[in-house]
Amino acid sequence: MGTPSFAASSLQKLIDEGYEIPLVVTQPDRRGNRNRMILSEIKQMALENGLEVAQPARIRKDPGLIERIEEIAPDMIVVAAFGQILPKSVLDIPRLGCINVHGSLLPEFRGASPMHAAILEGREESGITIMKMAEGLDTGDMISKVSCDIRGMDFTEVSSVLAEAGAELLAKTIPSVADGTASYEKQDDSMATYAGMIKKTDGYTDFSEPAYMIERKIRAFSEWPACYSYIDGQQVKFYRAEVLDEEPDGMPGSVSSTDKNSYTINCGEGKLRVLEQQLQGKKRMSAGDFMRGHRLSAGDRFGPEEEK
Fold it and tell me: What is the mean pLDDT of residues 240-263?
């Protein structure tokens, strides 16, 4: 059970290891630009490998799918970034239980967006925890862990590194669960932190935060929703920037200076040198290309959409 590319690495590893996979469960297809249907990476991989696919809108309200899983009577269910909470009726089906490939070092960053949270908090290290699933939100006993260096990475890079680490750890962990040699460690709930669902509005910035925090947002939200602001009534998404340890010389959001290849924005603390962005309706481009098509001068200001 899984949906994005993070999960696809684990599915590919299971295929490569020769496990019998009678069913792949993923989120429903979604509509993209021009009403085109977009398949999850898991569904594409499953179809390419001739695997049966189910796509419940909500698994807990899909008795037909639950009956199908009972009919299969799997030894184990592997979950990686599926995007839905499994009900007890599903957790209780497999003989060896349900195990989850989670993108953090639990009990830190339980929940839907652990990799975003690690970047936003400025962590240099994160990792993968494989746990036996329970009814709570990522509260199950931990079976295995691996740490990874994520310093300076954006979300795409962190997801790729952790996906590969998770797939490798999964391949090492399943045999120990199957033969009964796995050890299960309870989580310390007092140390738990949570990473909730990301909303589109989380990406907005008026630059009143410190420059280092905005740079983290740019990396954390690089895939979606992007770190964005507005100038002259148009949305600008930021994709690459660096923090300057300089005192601001203007209001947050105001342009401090420009040069041939970049421009600098005053923040609540420090300044941010923008290197790559995307103007509404345009492609991503370097700051130099952006300024050649959009006149930008010191004193111009990024801020809320209503500031026309």
Answer: 96
- For 225, residues 6+ apart whose C-beta sits below 8 A from its C-beta are 198, 199, 200, 201, 202, 203
In the CATH scheme, what is the code of domain 5-195? 3.40.50.170
Residue spans in the chain of domains classed CATH 3.10.25.10: 200-293
What does the alpha-carbon distance between residue 176 and residue 157 come to, in Å, rounded to a whole number? 30
Burial class (CB in 10 A: 0-12, 13-18, 19+), 225: middle
pTM for this entry: 0.93
Phi/psi for 165 (5° steps) reads -65, -40
The closest alpha carbon to 161, from 141, 176, 147, belongs to 147
Q: Where in the chain is the domain with CATH 3.40.50.170?
A: 5-195
Q: Percent of the chain beyond pLDDT 90? A: 91
Two structure tokens written together for 239: 């994709």
Which residue, 206, 200, 202, 237, is CA-closest to 302? 206
225: cis peptide before it, omega within 30°? yes
Alpha-carbon span 163 to 152, nearest angstrom:
17
Q: Is CATH 3.10.25.10 what the domain over 200-293 is classified as, yes or no?
A: yes
The pLDDT tens digits of the residues spanning 57-97 come to 999 999 999 999 999 999 999 999 998 999 999 999 999 99
C-alpha distances out from residue 8 to 26, 55, 163, Å: 11, 15, 8
- What pLDDT sits at residue 306? 67
For the chain, list the strands marked E by DSSP. Answer: 24-25, 30-31, 37-38, 53-54, 77-79, 98-102, 110-111, 125-132, 142-149, 194-195, 227-231, 234-244, 255-258, 263-266, 271-279, 284-286
Q: Exposed/middle/buried for 248, CB within 10 Å: 0-12, 13-18, 19+?
A: buried
